[in-house]
Amino acid sequence: MSLVSNEFSRIDDAGNFYVIDNGVERLIGSQPAMTLEEAMAFYVKRFDDLEASVRLLEQRLKAKADPKSIQKSAQKALGELESPAAIGDLQSLRVRTNAVLDGLGDLLAEAAAKQAELSQEALAAREAIVLAAEKIAAKDPQKVNYKTTSAEMLALFNSWQALQKTSAKVSKSKADELWQRFSKARNAFDSNKRTYFATQDSLAKASKSAKSDLASKAEALVANGADSVVAYRDLLATWKALPKTKTKSDDALWARFKAAGDAIYAAKSEKIAKDDVEFAANFKVKLELLEEAEKIDPSADLNEAKAQLQRIQLKWEKAGKVPRDSIKDIENRLKAVEQKIKSVENEIWRKTDPATIDRTNSVRTQLDAAIAKLEGELEAAKSSGDTAKIAAATEALEMKKAWLSVVIANS
Fold first, then answer.
1. Which residue of 107, 174, 191, 278 is most buried, as measured by CB atoms within 10 A?
2. Domain segments of the chain: what residues?
3. Residue 26 forms beta bridges with which residues?
């Protein structure tokens, strides 16, 4: 019996093994299929395995491995060391295991601080995703590019899922709050998207119907040729006011509408070209009338000038239309002649108007009286030899005479 016994064990006559654990003897079992030596080796091996586990915990603590993992393993080890079927100094293993737990204090504090920091970073990353989603959802639904923003929203959702898998754990309540905001933004965006495209479909249908009607009206105008230009422009203004759509049917309708317009404007261009040939002779007549009109001298005989102009104007009307690109030039030249005669007529009227004459005579009378008075003052100043008075009277007299000259010239 002594060959297999040690200070931490006892074997009775029946082959039962006892472990002396912290001064207390405890039955751990028997191994009838083994020799006593083999059974002892079996129980000692169990102790060695427990000691190896404790030693590993000590090594991990020294290496500053994950403290939470060490803590969990140490607590499990304590449970296994409570009453194991093993022979050895079990109490020393418990002491060493508790020493490992005691040594985790600083590491656990550091880990907790690091975990808190990582949690804050994870929350900040999630909140950034939420803010980006809310910004997209808040955009004017009518001004959103749904192709790019849909891709952006999907990328945000993928980023959220990736954070859930890879980032540090965060407060469940805070995570739930952020997720609710994110979901709300995504739902709002999806709702806006559905409404937008439903509206666009409705507008596209209405636009297609209206443009089809405009194309038919434009095609009906072609038969009237150049006379339909104004009516076609009105249809074009209506077309431009309709919502823009990017569909094949829209392109086809525009092709019909434009083809009708091209035909109308082609007819107009043809008519203008034909008219220009026909109006060329009229233009020649009006040029001759202009040469005659521009020789009129209203200052020589106003009444005769007005009579000449009237005769020329009658012939001008009878001459008819001229080419479009010549209208403005010849009309301006005739207006210049009319204005020249009108200016002479106005000047004669101004000079012969009784009211004007009365005003002029009144001013002349006043100026004559003022000049006579100033001449007297100048003579008096000269007699007194006062140079200051002489200079003042001379200046005032010259000014009045200048005014009189102006009045006489305009009368």
1. 107
2. 9-103, 116-201, 294-352, 354-409
3. 19
